[in-house]
Amino acid sequence: MKIDPNSPADLSAQIAKAIRDAIMSGDLLVDERLPSEAELSEQFNVSRPTVREALKRLGAQSLIRTQRGATGGAFVNRLRFEDAYGQQITTSTLLLSMNDVSFGTACEARYALERSCAALASERRTADHLATMRAETHRQSQPSLTDEAFCASDVAFHRALVDAAGNPVISYQLAGAVEAMQPLMNMITFSARSRETIVGFHSQITDALEQRDGAAVDLHLSALADYTNTLAQSVIDARQAAKTNS
Q1: Which residues pair with 64 in a beta bridge?
Q2: Tag placement on the chain: N or C end, fewer CB within 10 Å?
Q3: Are 162 and 170 in contact (CB under 8 A)?
Q4: What's the CA gap between 135 and 197, in Å, rounded?
Q5: Beta bridge partners of 33
Q6: Can you say whether the dihedral through the CA atoms of 108, 109, 113, 116 is positive or negative?
Q7: CB under 8 Å, gap of 24 or more: what pairs does 146-149 form?
Q8: Alpha-carbon gap, residue 169 to 218, rounded angstroms
Q9: DSSP assignment of 56-109
Q10: Whether 37 and 108 share a structural domain
Q11: What tens digit of pLDDT does each residue of 76-92 get?
Q12: Rg (CA), the chain
């Protein structure tokens, strides 16, 4: 593992990258203990605080874990898909927030990705997935439910549909689509949408999933996407009209 001391890149970032590359290449194995801070400091010819900052970066990425005690130190972590969900969601949220992504583009991507799960979810859904989706649909029908709670329930419903595909790679890849795009889309449409209509769509999707009818799941998701796009356009048009008249 080497770094370039003449590079303008931050030294701690270079060290973190060198260790990350060693993990990804298999030179450092899962559960293997990293050299001590003193040893890394000598190896990279940097101060111990610089090494410590590099280890913090790796810890924040869940690539290493630290243990205290006589047998402690920094160890290569056994990263699970579930552990990386948060990073995927954060990255997707930042990308959508910091770039000029239209609602239509986000909606198209979000539902195209979810519809790709329809066939697998129909084959592999379990009673637990169906129970979660029906519980969330029932929750959404409660008149006293706040907008914030409705949005959270909406995300939980679609998360269960994606997870029903029974593929952790798909669930990880769609974490950003469901848990980043969905809340942002809800922020735009919540004032115009009919909860009753959405509950109806969710009930149809769950019924089709229970019947293992992937084509029907896809059809109802497509209809929900069209409804969402129509809602967003009505909100955007209303806002534009308000600006014009002000």
Answers
A1: 76
A2: C
A3: yes
A4: 17
A5: 75
A6: positive
A7: 147/190
A8: 20
A9: HHHHHTTSEEEE-STT-EEEE----HHHHHHHHHHHHHHHHHHTT--HHHHHHH
A10: no
A11: 988 777 777 777 888 88
A12: 23
**CB neighbourhood size of 26 (10 A):** 8
CA separation for the pair 2, 23 (Å, rounded): 14
Residues 89 and 203 in one domain: yes
Q: In 10 A of CB 192, how many CB atoms? A: 13
H or E element, residue 215: helix 214-245
Q: Would you tell me how many other CB atoms lie within 10 Å of the CB of residue 226?
A: 12
Distance CA 33, CA 64 (A): 9
3-state secondary structure of 28: coil
- Verify that 136 and 44 share a domain, yes or no: no
Residue type, 90: T
Instruction: For residue range 63-120, list pLDDT tens digits in order.
Output: 899 888 878 889 998 877 777 777 788 888 787 777 777 888 888 888 999 999 999 9
pTM: 0.72
Query: How are the residues of the chain apportioned to helix, strand and coil, as percentages rounded to the nearest 5?
Result: 70, 5, 25
Q: Which domain holds residue 231?
A: 81-245
Distance (Å, rounded) from C-alpha 202 to C-alpha 159? 12
Q: Does residue 5 form part of some domain?
A: no
Determine whether 148 is exposed, middle or buried from the number of CB atoms within 10 Å of its CB (0-12, 13-18, 19+).
Answer: exposed
How many angstroms separate the CA atoms of 126 and 131, rounded?
A: 9
Q: How far apart are the first and last CA of the chain?
A: 62
User: If you average pLDDT over residues 35-54, what whole number do you get?
Assistant: 92
Long-range CB contacts for residues 128-132, cutoff 8 Å, separation at least 24: 129/160, 129/161, 129/163, 129/164, 129/209, 130/206, 130/209, 130/210, 132/156, 132/157, 132/160
